[in-house]
Design goal:
Layout lengths: L5 E3 L1 H10 L8 H5 L4 E3 L19 H7 L5 E3 L5 E3 L6 E6 H7 L4 H5 L5 E6 L3 E6 L7 E5 L2 E2 L18 E8 L3 H4 L6 E7 L7 E9 L3 E12 L2 E12 L12 E15 L3 E19 L2 E20 L2 E19 L14 E16 L2 E15 L8 E17 L2 E12 L3 E12 L5 E12 L3 H5 L1 E4 L4 E4 L7 E15 L2 E23 L5 E24 L2 E14 L12 E11 L5 E10 L2 E3 L2 E3 L2 E11 L4 E8 L16 E11 L4
Parallel strand pairs: 8-11, 26-29
Antiparallel strand pairs: 1-2, 3-4, 5-10, 6-7, 8-9, 10-11, 12-13, 12-37, 13-14, 14-15, 15-16, 16-17, 17-18, 18-19, 19-20, 20-21, 21-22, 22-23, 23-24, 24-27, 25-26, 27-28, 28-29, 29-30, 30-31, 31-32, 32-35, 33-34, 35-36, 36-37
């Protein structure tokens, strides 16, 4: 998407963005008047939205969006135009989700050049950004961490796309904006705001590999209170990271809710809640099945108001999560089997952030306090651990004509592991209406996890024990990037960026000796270092009712100790996509994409290259009803070391959307 410069009053941006669909139409002129927006850059291509009729997808609005850029979340949970960031950021809107029929985040994100899906045994999957994955990529919902991170149970496949307005992907360290774990980048799923009038949206889909899913979304504004409630259920007979079929199952239930109210025209109140439950099942040998049951809930309350010549934001967030692994010979787990002692995590934190404009400067200041608890019987010393994390941050965006300069820093102190300072400096120059250059230098870090610090595990049969290390330091990285965007005309855009990310103090498990009982002792230590570097290119263009894009990424990711390529990191990835929209009947949409992932090492083996061709057609049989038919992996590719979850899948679906505004 575009990077053309915008002049925006940042003090009012968030209030207007949140309330644009919340307040009755009579209040729109009052609220909109707080936000002057003037486009001063080149026009850029914008994707057309879902074929389902909606006021935001009419041609006139599509043309308007070609000068108004998407927004992205930054430090202090503030939303800014994409033009006001110097980091490499991709914003995927709801049309991308509809076009790819993606019900989980990994299904959509693995299609982007520069991002790769990496299996994490026994049953998890993560997204690698520029060669770094798992705990080194921060995954968020509405700016808050996805559950499971404290007990090292990260699974991007668990993150559903229901109620998603957009998914923001920031490449490179983002610790100034979001703190720990943002070494490789950040994935932030942003839920949609409430509708102004009653809207009901239901989707059902079924297909091969046991695919079954349905969602229901209801939104309205009553008495000045806007709300959205979304629920979903999905199931498949494949587990993405498991190379097995037969008894495999992955089932997820989701519920998300959001409510907002503008009080007195000044104070915006918001409450958000989420619930998810997942069961995974797969064969583990000897006629037994393994079972993982996850249960998570989280939510926040927030207030924003103009104060002290700027905007003040306060947010309180809470999260609960539990994880349990069991076994059985049947389809239902047996209590007390395998490692059945549930692991749990609790997270509570409070944020206070302030934004103001001083001449050409936009200044963000804030503080955040977190209290974290992990309960893991027989996994950590004392069966549980907790810590407190205190953070202070500041960021300045200075606009000088066509030049944007950003500088920021975050100080993070953890009671278990110490302190980390994360600075960043960036610059963007709108050299001409068609050319924009950008450069960024950033420091990222990942704090040691509870298990890395406090873990204790004894395998008497194997003759070894694994210990945590209270003296661990945070992993740290320095990242540099240099890129450009060229928009020779409103329908064509070319982008390229080179990057380098050097990571030090990586935490690894090493043999340290033998204890008094004769067991070998392994301990987590800061010893490893790695470097990822490469280049990304993309071309996007619109022609009539169609649009197309090409993207390619070259990645060199190495362990600097051994010189080996990092596992699962392909040197070459590419993507081509074509989409068309026609006004025949009540609307027809077709989408065709090809995704290439090159060879990659997996231990002593090599994962073969994979070319996946996916397509979907959608047609509105009436103004309310859309039918769809699609195929994933059309060519039926089955390369070595890719799990059965990637086999060819034919699917069909139906979507019904009704809005009181269209009556």
């Amino acid at each position: 998407m575009a990077d053309a410069a915008l002049r925006v009053d940042p003090v009012r941006t968030t209030l207007v963005e949140a309330s644009r669909r919340l307040r009755p139409l009579a209040l729109f002129p009052l609220v909109a008047g707080l936000l002057p927006v003037v486009a001063v850059g080149a026009q850029v291509p914008a994707r057309r939205d879902s074929v389902v009729r909606d006021s935001v997808v009419r041609d006139s609005v599509t043309r308007a969006r070609m000068t108004v850029l998407p927004v992205v979340t930054t430090v202090g949970q503030r939303t800014i135009p994409l033009s006001q960031t110097t980091a490499s950021t991709t914003v995927l809107d709801s049309s991308e989700i509809s076009a790819t029929a993606s019900v989980s985040a990994n299904q959509l994100l693995r299609q982007l050049p520069g991002l790769q899906e990496v299996a994490s045994p026994p049953s998890k999957t993560t997204i690698s950004i520029r060669g770094l994955d798992a705990s080194r990529v921060l995954v968020l919902i509405d700016g808050e961490p996805v559950a499971g991170a404290l007990i090292d149970n990260r699974d991007i496949g668990r993150l559903s796309t229901i109620a998603a307005e957009r998914i923001e992907v920031t490449k490179g360290p983002s610790s100034v904006e979001f703190g720990s774990d943002a070494l490789g980048g950040v994935i932030n799923l942003v839920t949609a705001a409430p509708a102004r009038t009653l809207t009901v949206d239901a989707t059902g889909r079924a297909g091969g590999l046991g695919r079954k899913e349905s969602t229901l979304d209801i939104s309205n504004t009553i008495g000045g209170v806007g709300f959205r409630v979304s629920g979903g259920w999905r199931q498949t007979d494949r587990v993405t990271a498991v190379d097995a079929v037969g008894s495999t199952l992955d089932r997820v239930y989701d519920l998300r809710g959001d409510a907002r109210k503008l009080v007195g025209g000044r104070v915006l109140l918001r409450a958000n809640g989420q619930f998810a439950r997942e069961r995974q099942r797969w064969p583990v040998g000897g006629g037994f099945n393994g079972f993982i049951d996850d249960l998570g809930t989280q939510g926040f309350v927030e207030a924003q108001t103009p104060a002290f010549g700027g905007t003040l934001r306060a947010r309180a967030f809470g999260q609960l999560f539990s994880y349990e692994f069991r076994q059985a010979q049947g389809d239902v787990p047996i209590e007390g089997s395998a490692d059945s002692l549930a692991q749990k995590e609790r997270l509570g934190r409070a944020l206070l952030a302030y934004t103001t404009t001083l001449g050409a400067h936009t200044l963000d200041l804030g503080a955040q306090y977190s209290r974290r608890t992990m309960i893991a019987p027989e996994k950590v010393e004392g069966d549980s651990a907790n810590d407190q994390v205190t953070e202070f941050f500041a960021r300045d965006a200075w606009t000088l004509g066509g030049v944007l300069l950003t500088v920021g820093a975050r100080s993070t102190n953890g009671s278990l592991w110490g302190n980390a300072i994360s600075p960043s400096v960036g610059a963007a120059w709108q050299a001409t209406p068609a050319w924009r250059l950008r450069a960024n230098l950033a420091r990222g870090f990942r704090a040691p996890s509870f298990k890395e610090i406090r873990y204790t595990f004894l395998n008497a049969g194997g003759g070894y024990t694994l210990e945590g290390n209270p003296d661990l330091e945070p992993e740290r990285s320095w990242s540099t990037s240099l890129g450009f965007a060229w928009t020779p005309r409103s329908s064509v855009r070319v982008e390229a960026e080179a990057y380098r990310n050097a990571v030090s103090d990586l935490i690894d498990t090493r043999f340290v000796g033998t204890n008094a009982s004769g067991f070998q002792v392994y301990r987590n230590v800061n010893v490893a270092s790695a470097r990822t570097e490469g280049a990304e290119t993309s071309v996007t263009w619109l022609f009539g009712s169609m649009d197309a894009s090409l993207g390619y990424d070259y990645l060199r990711a190495r362990n600097l100790e051994t010189g080996d390529v990092l596992d699962g990191r392909a040197k070459h990835t590419a993507r081509a996509r074509w989409s068309g929209r026609w006004d025949a009947w009540h609307g027809i949409a077709t989408d065709l994409s090809a995704r290439y992932t090159g060879k990659a090492p997996i231990g002593d083996l090599t994962q073969d290259a994979f070319l996946s061709v996916d397509t979907q057609g959608r047609v509105n049989v009436s103004p309310l009803v859309e039918l769809s038919l699609g195929v994933s992996n059309l060519l039926g590719q089955k390369p070595s070391l890719w799990t059965p979850a990637y086999e060819r899948q034919v699917f069909a679906g139906a979507r019904v959307r009704w809005s009181a505004a269209s009556r």
